[in-house]
Each structure stands twice: as structure tokens, then as C-alpha cells.
């Protein structure tokens, strides 16, 4: 459904509002669903995503928590085990490190370790990414890092449609799903079908067709990647742009189908280069498309430094359209 | 599975007094774990093995206060909790053997016994790792208007973890139906409590969160049951969480790997004089409630049950290797729950 | 940098009474942060900006008790701590501008002010994240037989983090020379303390770890200084860690992003009546220790200093992009320390 | 020095004893050094590595801690900042998740974020790996995952010489170093030069020469990899075996030099396959040796499942010599 084109009534909205609508719908339609996290209620969410929901659904279902990441994430796991459908919001991925033990050793592990008995139908939402001069401790892009862990699914909406539609599907999943919202996308505006609803969370999608090379990205780097594709088109280089959407599992088929046609690929990932999601994608392409490749694969990632505050340094540390264009030119050669 | 069932998996021979049930329950755990130690030495049980020999009164006493609707979250030292909660010996033993007939299909082993049908949410091998789960179980029960209570077992060592602080505060703040059952056996592996806790009066520390909190002699099954019932009633009636410090002692080393260099033999001997099983037998004998014949009969019957469980485990099949990746994610039809 | 220097970076005009120094120190912070707010609105300062306007008595009062050998660990709301510790306005302002002349070469910004030469170990943007560092600084000083004290600032919200529990226990257990300076401004972002803490008497809670702990009026610089000196003397003399609950209030929103929907305007107004600067000026005026001319002079002088700092920051160079990867690892010769 | 061959007096020892000797030497030679962690003292270390050191150096310098991973790891960071040279032992990598915030947001970040002022000369030791039927929560292999983080160095001794020599070098480093000891190696015995001392911690080493393909591994997988190389040799396939030793930074030169000669490579990594260190190595080889490769690269990693307790399932989940041999045959094939 993410690529539907049938004409339909549309509304003007933003990524933030689309997320809020998704949460509101979930709270309305299933009384097992509740939203829990720091300042999701009275404050309205640190990025105003849940603004107004406390007033609409009350403090039981839009539940403010103390600063106790490990406890409230683990509480979400326990509540899910007991039949609820919690949406746990961790303000940002930076603070999720304090809850990582609960995510890896419980959420991701309980079902398998219990021989299939203990299901954890939990959704954990968090903001991720850099680009707003928040400095080293507030600029991590660790969604690709989380994608290393078996037992969880990891998704990253990059469009209004996905912001509106991924949460519902994640909540319907019987297992834990981590949903990463890039901070730079909240204000992204656009039109959305009025009847926009759940979308699949396992397929990658081609956002732009092209024959010369494949640009693979996701989440907050999609706008930059599409901008680069535009620039390349002006030079006569037709880049195909793949939006991964799901970081775990990865949709190998969509990736390899495109690369087998273009024979060239550049992966764009805001994570630090070494051991990033981009590494895994390069590895899979090499394993699966070795004989289809016409040139070395490339990646455009964040510099391997804690992200600095100063704008010029932060810009230099993050993937930028120019760097994507340059890498694309190299592989097309 | 209230009353008898909660004490032991098999029907008992003839009517038994309640203290008799407690005795039987503790003996079942003792004999089961002593057998596990033998089987471990024989290489038939592997991995880590933590027995609670000496701490049986805690498991059996606390479990008396719980009903079927209640939930239990445990640690890696949980054979006793599992058996007292009513898990049959054979599925537990099969789990120790890593067989598909085990309560976790052999995937969990000694540290990860699960039985969702009994709301036994498992052995957790991360110290303190079960506390947030218990908070969540209690939160769900409260939000759904259920009267269930969640009992969370953890040790004196777990008390030092940040998660403990976060969870007690959350439970107290939200008035969750959670029983914090702290098994204070005075050691966290080789670390005596005084070398880990600035304030060693754990019940006092817990009370500072504004919750009902007290300590009880963890070697006296009757006293533990009384305290646990008091706490669980209070919680069930909306009194908010309670903290129970169960003062106990493990007679054996931390795990089968542990040479136990850090404890004074005399200290261990002193505590062995307070063996919870001997203690109860003495009390019951004085009151003419049990004879040495009864005790022998109980032991014999339980040993037979253990023999059966071992034989069944030996004979049981292994999970096919082809199923390794099952349950990383739920299967379409949905499993368990 | 004891006494005057600790209060403000530049020499003061003529001899001043100690209360005059406190007044000057608080005013410096107030005016500096008000300027930062303007500069932020003008887009010249970016990222997150958390001002402590209303909380100046805490920073200035506590810092009086510290000497050069002592260490300070702070939060993301640390401009006041930094200035009171003696960091010059110009290097702090340059940092806000992201210039290489900033105290962190522009890499840190508002939330990460550092000055190792003053043992100011920074702004930390992870709530509670500085507490373990403070424990370690105290541990090192104690192991080296130094008499230094480490003051760690953190908020009421941080109190709920597991790290707080772990760190206070460790400090108490090891009797480390650490001052836990808890800035209780009643809110953690939009969450009022009563919605985050089961027991809101934080000093009482901290005392349960067996350490000296008390609360003080955080709007009264003199009272804060007295309490801090008492605590620091005690710690320095081997009395072990102390917990100081500084009851204060932030007059402005949590950050420049915060519309402050969660606080009652009347509540804010009530607290503004207890403005620490006005309070001290009133006291001093009553005692004929200061005139409105003096106050005007102080403000004028400080504004000039701020103007200079801003001008310098504007004019200062940026770190060359080529140096982006510097300091991911130490450079051969070893930098800082 | 790790490849020295000059004859010298040697001693019979084990990996465990070599680690202990390294710690003892560090404590002896530098009074700023201390060992801190759970049960390192009175208990003698959960794997008996520090047995006897409490008696020799006392409770101040062989310091038992409560179960407070975040606090004592952070305390190690603070102590390092204040001029000490702490060796913090986290019993196992599984528990390090509770201290991850301190490692990533402080240890790895402070130097850069402070503009070069705050150095953290800290060594964190932890046991890693599966293979002893300890089940899902006690069998993580996350050293490759840690290698994603800029600001720390990650090393994994696989030989007696490295067990004896890496710690000293790590302590001499002005920045944080994570040292991973695979639990299956402690009992590994052998001979060591009596004068064995510090070794470099930045170079990979060729442990076995070969011309047909390159097997790349490290730590606990080295014995399996060398065993596989032996089997292959019997079949006439000469495998070159590279021991990475340093997982961050990676020694690209040693890796690419070997692959450029053999034109084929298999990476063996006990980490879960997706987003593992093996992905990064495949990515780098593809980027740097694209035109030198004669066949697709392969990896032998852990199955993407929480590691189960049952022996037959655990064996099936982990890299085994047979799987390495099979993969090698395929790429040479
Ligand atoms: C987070 C964590 N740290 C360390 C360990 C290793 N470990 C297992 S049990 C244990 C001691 C726990 O002591 P306590 O909580 O008192 O429980 P007891 O073993 O005495 O029943 C330790 C340190 C662990 N499993 N998890
Ligand atoms: C671990 C962590 N969780 C959440 C946040 C987001 N956050 C930043 S400040 C803050 C409130 C902290 O309140 P408090 O400790 O009282 O300090 P105050 O801001 O009132 O000075 C929150 C939730 C964070 N920075 N770190
Ligand atoms: Mg204990
Ligand atoms: Mg506050």
C-alpha cells in the first residue's frame, strides 16, 4: 500500500501529526494500547508528538514516567507479556542505552528462551539522529546498531505515509518492534490520503526509479538521498533510490533486484561508518550480487567522531547530498 | 493452583496438615536440587547451576500466599520457586537436560524455567533483570482491573542495582500490586552484604520509598507464609506494593563453579543448625504432627517422583536442530499466552 | 580560585563585602543567561539551551565552599556552575557560539562546558550521567590521599535514575569525598516531582543510605553557602559523602524549546517573589551594605564584560573542518590534564 | 613482537594465568593502577583470573564492587580522568549493557566533546562469548558491536602472548580500551616466553600462511579457524589465517595485503551475522579489493537466534570448524 497511486481525498499534514494520528488511532481502537514515557503527557512529548493525547485519553493511557528508562521500558515488556499493547516512548535513542539490557536480554530474548511461551507485543518509539547541533550525547544514530539484535524488528518511517501507517502494523505484530523517528523529519509537511492507514513493515520500497546506480538509504537520510538523486538526474545520471523502511529484517529482494539491474550501488547511512547498517548492506550485496557488480560499492556515512556542536563541524560529520553525489559519480565513473 | 498443588506437583498420600504440605514442598525442592547437583557432577546437567538448598522456606512460604491468577518473576536460582509454584518435576528436570519436553523446550536450562500457564514468568539470569518485568505485569493487572498480585524474587545483591531503585519507586508511585520478595542470603556470590550495601538493613532502606516493608526469618516456613499472606492481602486490597526481606542463607556455594573460598565454615555450620526443613520437622514432631516414618515416607515418595522425572528426561527427545530458529519471532498462529 | 575569583572571572571594582561578591556572582550569571536567551532567539546560539535563571543562589552559594583542588561535575544546565567556578565569560560565550576559542573548542556548546584547569569536568547532557564520574573523581582523590572534594550537581529528576541509587550507595559504602548537590527545582521538564517520586522529601530519601543529608533554601545564597561549607568541611575531614537538597525553582521554561504548558503561572509568580538576587539585595540594603547605585554599577560593569565576551565570540575563528577528527583519540604529546 | 621467533626461556602457562600475570605486573609497576569489579577480590574473579591478587595488593587496589555496573564503570572513567589507571572488570559482556551509557556517552565521548581536555586512560576487561551452555542471557558476543563506537579501542587476545601482553599496552594508552576475553580460552594452555611483555594492540597478525584463501577471525573463534585451516591443508587447500587482534581500529593493511594475494576470503565471527564485525570486514574488502576478488566473500557467523542452552542447539548456533571448511571449499571451489 505504501506505493498506491489511486486518487483519493488528501489532507495537509506533517510527519509529527501523522505520528500523532497513528498513536491516537491506536489508543482509540484498542483499549489494551497505552502510551508510556517521559513527558508524553503533561508536557505533550519532548517533540510534541503526543500533544493533546493526555487530555483526550487520560493519565492512565498516556502515562508520564519518572526518569527511569530501564524500569519503564522493562515495565512495557512486562505489560506486553500480560496482554497489553504498550507503546513505550524513549525520548531519544541516546537515552535508550540505559534501557538496553531490558531490550536485548528480555524483549528480544524471552520468546525464544521460553520455548515460544512468552510473547512481547511491544512497540518502542524513539527519536534518533543528528543535525540539530545537539552535540555528542544527543546526536546518536543507533537504529542500524539495534538492527544487529535477533528477536526484535526495527523500522524507520521516512515518509508521511509510513509515519502514519507503521505504528499500527507494529502494534499488531506479536513481537517487539522498535520504531525510529528521525528528529529532522517531524516538521516535514505534505499531503496524505485521508484514509491513510496501516502499511507493511517488512518491505523496502523504490522511491525513485533509475537505471545507472542504486542509492540505498532510510529514515532521516532519505531527503538528502532524494536531493542527491535530483542533482544526479540533472547531470544525466539516473539513480534508483531504495528506502529500506525495515532495518531488521532487511528486504534483500528489493535491494538485490535493483542492484542486479543497475550493477552499482551507494549506501547512505547516518550511522558511524564502521559496523554500521551500511556495512551489512554492502556485505549482502557482495554475497548475493557479486557477479552483477560493475564497480566497487560505496557508502556515505557519518564521520567516526562524536558529533560536535558547531554547525560547520556537524555538517562536515554527517552525510550530505554533495557527498552522495560525489560517491555516485565515482561508482558510475 | 492454590493450597496443596502449589506445594508439590503430585497428589500427596492421604490428607496432610498444612504444615505437612510445607514440609513436603520444602523436601521436594531439597531432594530435587540435591539430585541436580549429582547429575551436574555426572555431566548430565550443564551450564550454570545455582541451587537454593537452605532457602526452601522462602519459596514454599511465599508461594502459599499466591493464587492461580497471581504472577511470579524469579531469578537464576529458581528451581525452588518453580516447583513451589506447581511446575511438575518432570518438565523441570527435562529442562535441566535440555530436552524438548522441558518447560522451556530445553532452550532455557536451569536459569530459565518458564510456565506461562502458571504465570511463572521465568528465571532471569541478569541480576535485577526481572524487576522491571514484574512492574509491568503489575501495571497490566492494575490497568485491567484484575486483582492479581505479582511476586518478584531477587537477592540482596540485586538491591544494589539501579533497576531496583527505579522499580521500587515506580511501584510505590503508581501503587502497583507487586510483592518485592528479597531473598537476603547475606552474599552476592563472594561479596558479603556489608561489603556491598552502605545500609545493610534492607527492609529499612525499602521503607524509605514509602512502602510497607519488613523483614522475616526466612528459615521458618510458617513465619514466611504468615508474612507473605499479610503482604499479599494488603497488596490485593489496594494497599500498594510491599517489600519483604527474607533473611535466609544458602548452604552451598553460589554455583557449581564456586569453590566458596569467601565464607567461614563455622558461619555455614551455624546456619545449617537452622535448616528450614529440620526446623519444621522439630516443630511438627513436638506437636505430634509428624513422625519419622511420615518423613521417611515423604522422602521415599519424592525420590520416586524424582527418579521418574530423571528417567523421563533421559528418555525424552531433543528439539530437532532444524527448529533452532523457531520462536525468534512468533509463529503465525501465535504460541503460548 | 577561592573567594572572589570563584565568584566572577574579572576583578571587581574596589573592595567588596562577601555578600557583595555573592550578589555580583549571581548577577553575572543572570545577565549572562538573559543575554544567551536573546542570542538564541536571534539564532546566534543553537542546539539546546537550558538556563538556570532563578537558581543562581545554588551555583554561587555552593561554589563558595570549594577550593582550587576540588572538582565539579555538572549538568546541561551549567552556565551558572561554570561561571561561578571561575570560567571566564568570554570562553563560555565563545563556546555557545561554537568557536574554537570556546572552553570546549566549540565542540560541546551550551551543554558541554569544560575546563580541566579548574577541575570543572563538564556539562553532561545525560540526566544522572555525571554522578558516576563524580564517584570516580572522589575515589581517585581518596586513593591518592588528596583532601579534595568533588561536588556533583544534578536535578530532582536525576534522583529517579538507577545511577543515582548506585552512586550514593557506592559513595556511602566507600566513604568517598563527594558532595551530592541536588538542585530540586520541583520539575523534570514537564513532570512535577510528585508525579515522579513516590517520596518527595529527597533529603530524607538520601539519608536512608546512611549519609549526612539535609535540605536548604536554594533561593538564599547565604544559606546555601553556609550549608555547603558545613557539608564540604565535613567531607574534607573524612566524614564521608553528604547530600544537599537545594530547594529552588527555574523561572523560565526547561529549554528554549519548551512552551511551559505544565506550570501554573501563579506558582511561577510566587517563586519570582523569592528571586535570589532581589532577596540578597533587600537584605544588603536593609543592612546598608549596598545602594541601588552599587547595584547599577555592578550591572553596568557586568554588561560591559558580557558585551566584550559577545564581541569576542563573534570575532573568534571556527575550528578548521580539517580538525574534525582531532581528539577522537589523544594526540601523541597528550593534551589537557 | 607478537611474531617474534628468537629462542628464549619459556614457561608453561594458561590464558588465565597469562591474564593474571599481566594484571599483577601492572599493579606492581604503576601505583596508579587498580583493579575494580564484581568479585575480583575475595572471590578471586568469577573466572579466577584475579585469584590471589587481593591477598597480594590489598582491598584498595583489588576492589570488590556491589552489583552496580553503571556506577563502577563510570567510577572507573572518573578515576581515570583524575589520573588513575583503572582496570575495570565487567564479569561478562552480557552485563556491560547496564553500563553502556557510561561507556558510549562518557568514556568514548569526553575527550572530543571537551575539545581535547578530558582524557580517559581506562581499560575495561570483560569475558565474552558462548559455547558453555549458559543460554541466551549469558552467551552474547558483542565485542564486534562495541567496535562500532568511535573514541574507544577494542582488542581481543586470542593467544597466550596477547593475553599476557595486551593489557600493559592498553594501560599505557591515554584513551579507553575495551579488552575482550573469550570464556572458552581461559583454560587454553601452552608455552610462553619467560620475558613475554607488552605487545602492540593495533596490528592484525597472520597466524598461518597460505595462498588459496584468507580466513579472517579473532578471539574465541581463532582455535576453530586454525583447526579448519588444518583440515583444509589436508585437502590441499592452503588457507592463510589472519588474527585481527584489534577490532577497533581494524588493521586494513594486513587484511587487504593477504586478500590481494589470495583473492578469496572467509570471515569467521561469533557475533550474530547481521551487522556484525564480519559485515564491516566484507564491506572494507569490497571497497578496497574489489578488482582483486575471484569469488564472492563468505562469512561464518552465529545464527541469528538467542543462544539456546541445549548443547546440540548451541553447537548448531555457533560457528564450527566444519562450517568454516565448507565455506572455504565454496569460495575456492
Ligand atoms: C547484572 C548482572 N551482574 C552480574 C551477574 C553475575 N552474577 C550472577 S548471580 C550474582 C550474585 C547475585 O547475588 P544476589 O542478588 O544476592 O542473589 P543470590 O545469588 O545470592 O541468590 C552475580 C554477581 C549477573 N548475572 N547479572
Ligand atoms: C537519561 C536521560 N533521559 C532523558 C533526558 C531528557 N531530559 C533532559 S533534562 C530532563 C529533565 C531533568 O530534570 P532534572 O534532573 O530535575 O533537572 P532540571 O532540568 O530540572 O535542572 C530530561 C527528561 C536526558 N537528557 N537524559
Ligand atoms: Mg544473595
Ligand atoms: Mg528539576
Structure summarized in a few sentences:
Chain A has 333 residues and is of the alpha/beta class. Helices cover 37% and strands 21% of the residues of chain A. In chain A, α1 packs parallel to α8 (160-172), α3 (69-81) packs parallel to α5 (100-107) and α9 packs across α13 (321-332).
- Strand segment count of chain B: 7
SSE order of chain B, one letter for each helix or strand:
HHHEHHHEHEEEHEHEHHH
Helix fraction of chain B by DSSP (H/I, runs of at least 4): 40-55%
| Percent strand of chain A | 15-25%
Low-confidence stretches of chain B: 1-13
Helix-and-strand structural type of chain B:
alpha/beta
Alpha-carbon distance between the termini of chain A? 36 Å
Q: What would you report as the Rg of chain B, rounded to the nearest angstrom?
A: 19 Å
Rounded mean pLDDT score of chain A: 97
Overall geometry of chain B? globular
Strand order of the largest sheet of chain B: 1-2-3-7-6
Q: Helix coverage percent of residues of chain A?
A: 25-40%
Care to describe what's here?
The complex is a heterotetramer, with two copies of chain A (333 residues) and two copies of chain B (337 residues). Chain A has 13 helices and 14 strands. Chain A has 333 residues and is an alpha/beta fold. In chain A, the strands form three sheets. Chain A has a seven-stranded mixed β-sheet, sandwiched between helices. Chain B contains twelve helices and seven strands. Chain B is globular. Chain B is an alpha/beta fold. In chain B, α2 crosses α3 and α3 runs parallel beside α9. In chain B, 60% of the residues are buried. Helix content of chain B is 44%, strand content 9%. Chains in contact: A-B, A-C, A-D, B-C, B-D, C-D. The interface between A and B is large, with 40 and 48 residues. The structure holds thiamine diphosphate (2 copies) and magnesium ion (MG) (2 copies). One thiamine diphosphate (TPP) sits at the interface of chains C and A.
